[in-house]
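Can't paste images in this forum, so I'm doing it all in text. The chain is below; anyone willing to post the predicted structure tokens underneath?
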Amino acid sequence: MSETVDPLVLDFVEWVAREPRAYAEVIATWKTSCPRLTIWEDAADRGYVARETVAGLGLVIAVTKDGEKLLRTNGR
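Text version of the structure:
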């Protein structure tokens, strides 16, 4: 069964793929007051991005292999 990709999740994964993003930057840029609009949480739950600690940068959000596959599959 194929899963429909949420365009905002795809945009978010593409944004993170440009460079690993500091956790604080992700929160500041993609936060929302709407509990139904959980773009970056949805991307993490689906395995497209993950939190990792990088020396000198601290906690970052980076694209996973599944996220890279998502981008290729959707022509990004």
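The CA atoms of residues 2 and 64 lie 19 Å apart. The chain has one domain: 7-70.
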